[in-house]
Amino acid sequence: MSLPILSRPTADPPTSALPPVPQSRHTRKSPVQRPSKLKTPSRPSVSPSNQGVSSTPELPTLKTTQNVRSLSTPQTVRKAVSIGQFPQPPPPHAISRPPSAASIASPTFSRKRVSEASRLSTPGTPKLKISPRHSDGSNLYRMSDTPSLLNAGISSSAVPLVDNKRASDGLSSVPSPPQSRSSSANGSYSTSATTFEEGDEDRGRCKDVSEELLGPKGVRGKEHKGNVTVSVRVRPDSNGHDSETAEGEWMVDGRRSLIAYRGKEGGDYHYDNVFGTYDDNAKVYDSAAKRLVRRVMEGYHGTVFAYGMTGTGKTFSMQGITSSPGVIPLAITDIFSYIRETAQREFLLRVSYLEIYNEKINDLLATPANGSSAPQEEIKLREDSRRGVYATPLKEEIVQSPTQLLRVIHRGDMARRTGSTQWNARSSRSHAVVQIVVESRERVPSGNSQESKRVAMLPSGVRVSTLSLIDLAGSERAADDRERQKEGAHINKSLLTLGTVISRLSASKDKNGAPIDKDGKHLPYRDSKLTRLLQGALSGSSLVSILCTIQIGASGSSTAATTHTMETLNTLKFAARAKNNIVSHAKKAVEEVGSGVNAGLLERYRSEIANLRSQLEHQKKSADAKEEKTEEVQMEREAAHRHEEQMLEMQLARTALKERIEHLNRLILCSKSTGVNSGMTSALGMHGRLSTGTVGDHGPPRSVKSPASHSTLGTLGPTVSRHPSMASIGAPPTFSPAADADEDEDPSDLGDGMASLQAQNRALQADLQDKNRYIATLEKRLLQARRSSHSRTSLGFSRMVQEEDDVQKHLEEKDAVIADLQKTVTVLRSAVRQRSNADMTPESSFSEFRSKKDIRILLDGEASEPVRPASPPESIGAPLTGATPLSLLSAQKSGDKKRKSVDEMSKMLDEMIQDKVESGHLVKGKSGSVRVPPRSTSTQRQHSRRASNDHAGPMPPLNTTISTIRERDFVQERVPATLPAKSLR
Ligand SMILES: Nc1ncnc2c1ncn2[C@@H]1O[C@H](COP(=O)(O)OP(=O)(O)OP(=O)(O)O)[C@@H](O)[C@H]1O
Fold first, then answer.
1. Which pLDDT band, with edges at 50, 70 and 90, does 881 fall under?
2. Substitution site in 171, 316, 469 for ligand 1 pocket (most atoms within 8 Å of beta carbon)
3. Of 3.40.850.10, 3.50.50.60, 2.40.50.140, 1.20.1050.10, which CATH number belongs to 48-500+531-588?
4. What are 76's strand-pairing partners?
5. Residue 769 confidence (pLDDT)
6. What percent of the chain has pLDDT over 90?
7. Staple 141 to which of 132, 190, 218, 321, CB 3.0 to 4.6 Å?
8. How far apart are alpha carbons 748 and 755 in whole angstroms?
C-alpha cells in the first residue's frame, strides 16, 4: 500500500482582510461527539466479530455496526492552503467554546456533524472497533478526574447523549469517563488527565478557571498532570481499502479516548483525546489546543507539538488545508479574538519561526525575500533563568492582525525544508517551531477625560508568555535517497532523544537544580537541539499539548504493514509516556515592571513612547523658547536695522547739508579767487567807505534806507568786513585796510572792468554748473532717502520725516537760490552787454540798477517796498532823506561816468545790505563790518535781528546761510568785481 502523494500549501497569503473576530465567546458550545451513521458501540451489544480478536480474545472488541465510509482520496485532501480561505471566526454571538451537548442535540448541529463525517469517510476506511471497558479491569482503566488548566472549569458531569445514547460510534472524541491512570500489565496505557466537557452550568460563564483551580480549593496534587494534554489522531487510510487484519486488530474509541490494539504487543491506550478519521482540524484544535492557547493569552507558557510517523498528518493537523485550517491558523484567530474580548488589557505580539534541520537551526523569517543566498548567522541556543532556553539571534516580527501573522508564518512555511520521500511526497525534513510571544498589560479603564486617558497609559507590570507551535519531522525508516537518509538519521536521532528524555522524566533534580532521572542521571536534553529547545516545556514550565498522529491499517506488503504497525505502536507508547511522565507546574508569568533589558517589548515601547513624548514636549518647549528668542533677536535686529537706516538717512541728510555748505563755501572761495568775492568785499569796503568817507568827499551821505538803517550803516566803520562765508563763521576774518588798499589800489581793476565782468560772468556760469550738478546729487540722495524711508517703521520715523521735510525745505530754498543765481547770471549778462556800449548815462545806469533792484526784489520777494529817496547826506548816521538814486547820480554828472555809476551801485548795495541787516540776515559790527548773524534759535535770531549787535556766533543755521548766500549773490550781482576800490573809498 503506497502512501498518498501530497502537496504542501503553495497558495499565497490572502490579501483580503480576515473575517470579523467574534466579540463574544459565550455561545459557541463545546465540541462533543457528533452524530454518526456509525453505530455506537455499547457494551451490551457486543459484536460477534469480537471473538475473532486473537490477541485479546477475552476482550469483547466491538465493531462498528456500520462501516465508516472511507475518506476521500488522500491525494486531494491536502490542497494548497490559502489563508484567506481559512474558516471564518464564529459570528459575534457565537463563542469559541466547544459545542455543548445541548447544541449537539439540535438538529442543525447534528446535520452538520453528520455531513462532515460522511464527507470525510470513504468506503474502504478500516473499520474501527470500539473497545468496551474491560470487564475485568485489568487492561482498561478509567481516567482520573484531574482538573487542570487545560480542562479547567470542566465538570465531570456526563455528557448527555443524544436520544439517550451515545451519538458517536467511537470516532467521536467525547472524553471517557474518569479513570485512574495506570498501565496494564500487557502494555495498555491510560492517562491520569482527562478532558471533560463543560457542564451546562459552566456554559456562558467566563471565569478565570485557572484561578479557580490553582486556588486553595484546587486539586493541587493533580493539577500538574492535568496541565499536559496528550491526544492521538488517526489519519484516514490513504488508498481507501483496509486490511482485514488491521480492521480486526485496531479499535479506536473516540468517545472514551481509547485506542486498542489486539495484535502482538497490543493493549488499550487511553489519552486525553482520541480523534478518529472523521474528525476535522477544528475539532482537533478545539479539544487539544484551544484552552492552552487561551491560557497562554492569560500569561502561561504553552507548547503544542505534533509527533508521529512520517506521512501521518502532523503538518496537516498543524497547518491544515484551505477547507480545514489547522492548529496554527486557528490559534492565531483565537489569539486575536481573545485580544478583542479583553478590553482591560493591552497586548503586543511578536512572532519568530525557526527550523531544526540536520541539527542546525535556521531562521525561517530571516530568509532573504529576494532569494539571495547570503549565509545566515549561526543561531545558537542559550539559556537564562527568565527566558529558559531560547534561540538567538532570531528575527522576531511584531504583528498587529491575524492576516499579518498568518502571512509571516506562511513566509516561514515557504522557507521550510521539505522533500519527497517514499512515504510523503512533501515530507517535512525539519522540525519547525513557531513561537508567538504574547506581552500583555493591565489597562486602567479610561474615561473620556484627558486625565483618565493619561492614567490609562500609566505603566503597570507586563506579562510575557510564549506559545510554541511545533511541527516535528516524522520518524521514518531508512530511505533510499542518500540525502533523505542523512536527514532521516538526524530526524530519528532527535526524536529518539526526545523519547528518551520523556521516558526518563522525573520530578527529581540534582543539587544544582538540574533535572535528573529516577536513577539520578542527568537528562540528555543536550543530545539534540530539539530536546534542548523543548527543555522548558518538558521540564514542566509550560502547559503542554502533544498531538500524536498515527495511521492504522497501512497497506502494502506484510513486512511493511508490520513495520508500520510497530511505528504506530511506538507513537502510542511515546504519547502514553509523555502523558505519564511530563509534569507541568506551569505558572502564570510574573508581571514585570520596569524598562530594563528583561522587560517585554511592550514595556520598552511604552517607556520609549513616554520618553519620546517627554522629549517632544521638551523640544517643543525649547523650540518655543528659541522662537521667542529668535523673535526677540529679530526684533532687535529690525530695530537696529531701522536705527541704522535712520542713522544713514540722517547721515545722508547731514552729508547733503554739509556738502551744500561746503559747496557754497567753495563758491565763495571760488568767487574770491575769480575776483567776485573780492569784488563783493570791495563793494562792501567801498560801501563802508561810502558810508563814512563819501560823506566827506561827496557831501552828506545819503541813505537809501530809513534813518535807523542809516545809523546802522554809520556804525560800519571805515573797514567793511568781508562778506561772511562758512569759512568765516565763528571767526569772521576781516580784511585789513592794507589788504583792502592793495586790492583797491590795483590799477588794473580800474582799467579793466569789462574783463572782470567777463571773468565774473564765467565764474558765475561755472558756479551755476556746479550748482546744477549739486542739485542732481541732492536729488539722487533725496530719492535714496525716500526709498529707504519706505521701510521705516521705527518710532523715529516721524522725526525723520520731519527732518526730511526740513531738508526738503532747504532744498527748495536752495532751488530758489539757484533760480536767483540763474536770473542773476542773465542780468549780469545783460549788464555786460550794456557795458559793452560804453556809453552809460547816470539815468540809464540808474534805470539799469533800478531794474536790477526790481529784479532782486522780485526774486527775493522780500523787499516789496519801493526804494525810498535817499536821505540828505548831512551827517553820517543821519537819515538820508529826500534823495533818490536818480538825484544822487545826477549830482555827480561831472565825475567819471563809471565812477558815478559805481557810486550809484554802492548806494544801492548799501541799501540792500541795510535791508538785510534789518531783516536779520546780516549783522553789523561795531567797526561797521557786516557779518552773518551767529547760529541761534529762532528767538535768538529774532533777538539778534532786533539788537543788531556785533555778537559773533557759531555757525549760522542753514536758512541764514542760504539767505547769506542770496545776499552775497545779490551783492555779486549788484557789484561788478571790477569796481575800482579807490573809487569806493
Ligand atoms: N486527517 C487527515 N485527513 C485527511 N488527510 C490527511 C489527514 N492527515 C494527513 N492527511 C494527508 O496525508 C498526507 C501526509 O500528511 P502530512 O504531510 O501532514 O504528514 P506528516 O506527518 O507531516 O509527514 P512528514 O512527517 O513526512 O512531514 C497529506 O497529503 C495530508 O493531506
1. very low
2. 316
3. 3.40.850.10
4. none
5. 86
6. 10
7. 190
8. 10
Nearest in space to 210 (alpha carbons), one of 546, 579, 585: 585
ipTM of the complex: 0.98
> How many other C-beta atoms can be found within 10 angstroms of the C-beta atom of residue 556?
15
Please answer whether residues 980 and 748 qualify as being in contact, where contact means their C-beta atoms are separated by less than 8 angstroms.
Answer: no
Say how many C-beta atoms besides its own lie within 10 A of residue 924's C-beta: 25
Cis-peptide into 393, omega within 30 deg = yes
- How is residue 522 annotated by DSSP? B
Q: Whose CA is nearest to atom 1 of ligand 1?
A: 235
Q: Estimate to the nearest angstrom the gap between the alpha carbon of 881 and the chain centroid.
A: 99
φ and ψ at 515, to 5 degrees?
-65, 140
Q: Is 74 in the pocket of ligand 1 (CB under 6 A)?
A: yes
Indicate if ligand 1 lies below 6 Å from the C-beta of 315. Answer: yes
Residue 820 binned pLDDT confidence (cut-offs 50, 70, 90)? confident
Ligand 1 within 6 A of CB of 474: yes
Those residues with Cβ within 8 angstroms of residue 404's Cβ, 6 or more apart along the chain or in another chain: none
SS3 content of the chain, % helix, strand, coil (to 5): 45, 10, 45
Tell me which DSSP letter residue 184 carries. -
Separation of 315 CA from ligand 1 center, angstroms? 6
Is 793 annotated in a binding site? The answer is: no
pTM (whole model) above 0.80: no
User: Which neighbouring-strand residues pair with 325?
Assistant: 320
Nearest CA to ligand 1 atom 15: 313
**Ligand 1 atom closest to Cα of residue 233:** 1
CA distance 259 to 291: 23
Q: Which atom of ligand 1 is nearest to the CA of 426?
A: 17
Longest dimension (CA), the chain: 188
* Domain residue spans of the chain: 48-500+531-588, 643-984
Task: Tell me the three cell numbers of residue 748.
Answer: 588794473
Positive/negative CA dihedral, 637, 643, 647, 648:
positive
Cα dist from 361 to 172, 413, 757, whole Å: 38, 15, 120
